[in-house]
Amino acid sequence: MHRARLVCLLAATLLLVPVALARAGGRDHARGGVAFVNLSSGLSIDPAVDFISSGWQIEYVTCAQLINYPDATAPAGAQLEPEVAKTVDVSPDGLTYSFRLRDDFRFSPPSSQRVTPDAFRRALERVRDPALNSPGAPFFRDVVSVTSDGGNRLTIRLAHPSGDLLARLAMPFMCAVPPDTPAVEQQRPLPSAGPYYISGYTPGSRLVLTRNPNYDGPRPSNLDQILYQLNTDPATSLAQIESGRQTTQPAACRRTRTRRSHATSRRSSSSTRNPACVTSR
User: Fold this and answer.
1) Do 45 and 201 touch, CB atoms closer than 8 A?
2) Based on the structure, what is the number of domains in the chain?
């Protein structure tokens, strides 16, 4: 019975290996290393299509959004704040939301293009396009229009006032995408503007996240890479731990942050502060 419970808990097992761990400047966080993650299922790499928790973990570390939850403990980590948006203005009737964007966010290589309002206009257009059949479409049925002024301003108009629009915009469906992204599910990695980007992907087998050299925001990117092994039998993950070839990160060394919204709740990945907490045998 104990073994069966362990197998269930290892549907997503985090295995960490220290690789070139080093201090970065005078910061307290360890910088460097590679995290190995076993997932018992596959996932979609298209933010407009994915709707499972493991996929949203990946999108949280790869995506930049208009509005987001900070990587912080509660209560700060549960409070929405602008990310790519610099200011948010709401009309007196509650029907029009106007976002003025920052100009210092860029997509990952090989694009490296600046993130403009058109990136978010396209993200919302794709989610609402019936051709894509996005599971995010029901969250934005009240959107009447989304427009960009060609500069730094994005405008969203609603059919009726809605106090939870900002929480919905913080969902991964609204991940910034290149403005020319078509309304079909993407099977190849899209450039992203968060702390990491998908640098390698073999469908149903393997996914590689690499630190985004174009990201200069406040969210942490201490690991060099995060390697996901997909469709791994939980029994295999359990055997790796029991054999001593890999060990899970000690609970005392984990720092888990929870961010909640009106639309949904999700748990972000833990981060490592102390190189001694990263173990392998």
Assistant:
1) yes
2) 1
Q: Would you state the structure tokens that stand for residue 119, as one six-digit string?
A: 């990136």
Average pLDDT, the chain: 82
Range of the domain at 162: 2-277
**CA-CA distance, 19 to 1, in Å (whole number)?**
36
Amino acid at 274: N
Q: pLDDT tens digits for 225-250?
A: 999 999 999 898 888 888 876 544 43
CATH number of the domain that residue 42 is part of? 3.40.190.10
Q: Which of 52, 59, 262 is nearest to 166 (CA)?
A: 262
For the chain, the residue count is 281
Burial class (CB within 10 angstroms; exposed 0-12, middle 13-18, buried 19+) of 44: middle
* 52, 266 contact by CB (below 8 A): no
Amino acid at 214: N
Tell me if the pTM is above 0.85. no
